[in-house]
């Protein structure tokens, strides 16, 4: 059984999902791959992890950096989980390129090169938006490309973190 709850953010509704202990999903309503990791029946229920997530989101949307992370329960391939672990290291207010993540992944895997496109696929399928900060990933030269929640939300999240996006531009819209 997967449990769900909801949060109304300043930039749109958010659905949260949990197997009971950890957060396994957090999506903007209607985003690409919405609830893609939720299989089977769901039930709306208030859980401690949802209350902690709402507190995290309240702090985040107030323009502050939360000093805690709700318990996460990320489901995905070994490759995707490794990419998501790297996302969790991107500092608040900063960005990293798909290519930089690919280089880190290659080094961790002991190989010469890793595909930035493969990394992009893993970033795009991140099931816990915002908290696992896939919005902090940009294309070459800071191009604002790709975000399952939509480029407008990516820009809003980066601005919320006071990220300097003045030299970034939208490469393609989702």
UniProtKB/TrEMBL annotation:
The keyword DNA repair applies. It is found in: Cytoplasm. Residues 78-162 form the Methylated-DNA-[protein]-cysteine S-methyltransferase DNA binding domain. One of its GO terms (biological process) is DNA alkylation repair. It catalyses: a 6-O-methyl-2'-deoxyguanosine in DNA + L-cysteinyl-[protein] = S-methyl-L-cysteinyl-[protein] + a 2'-deoxyguanosine in DNA; a 4-O-methyl-thymidine in DNA + L-cysteinyl-[protein] = a thymidine in DNA + S-methyl-L-cysteinyl-[protein]. It comes from the Bacteria. Its main location: cytoplasm. The keyword DNA repair applies. The active site is at 134 (nucleophile). Its EC number is 2.1.1.63. One of its GO terms (molecular function) is methylated-DNA-[protein]-cysteine S-methyltransferase activity. Residues 4-73 form the Methylguanine DNA methyltransferase ribonuclease-like domain. Involved in the cellular defense against the biological effects of O6-methylguanine (O6-MeG) and O4-methylthymine (O4-MeT) in DNA. Repairs the methylated nucleobase in DNA by stoichiometrically transferring the methyl group to a cysteine residue in the enzyme. This is a suicide reaction: the enzyme is irreversibly inactivated. Belongs to the MGMT family. This is Methylated-DNA--protein-cysteine methyltransferase. It comes from Ruminococcus bromii.
């Amino acid at each position: 059984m997967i449990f769900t709850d909801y949060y109304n953010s300043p930039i749109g509704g958010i659905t949260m999902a949990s197997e009971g202990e950890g957060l396994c999903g957090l999506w903007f309503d209607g985003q690409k791959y919405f609830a893609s990791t939720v299989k089977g029946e769901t039930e709306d229920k208030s859980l401690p992890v949802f209350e902690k997530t709402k507190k995290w989101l309240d702090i985040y949307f107030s323009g502050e950096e939360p000093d805690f992370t709700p318990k996460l329960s990320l489901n995905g391939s070994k490759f995707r989980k490794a990419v998501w672990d790297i996302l969790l290291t991107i500092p608040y207010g900063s960005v990293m390129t798909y290519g930089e993540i690919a280089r880190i992944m290659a080094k961790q895997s002991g190989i010469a090169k890793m595909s930035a496109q493969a990394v992009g696929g893993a970033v795009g399928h991140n099931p816990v938006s915002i908290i696992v900060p896939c919005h902090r990933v940009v294309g070459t030269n800071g191009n604002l490309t790709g975000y399952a929640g939509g480029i407008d939300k990516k820009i809003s999240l980066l601005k919320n973190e006071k990220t300097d996006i003045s030299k970034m531009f939208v490469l393609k819209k989702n």
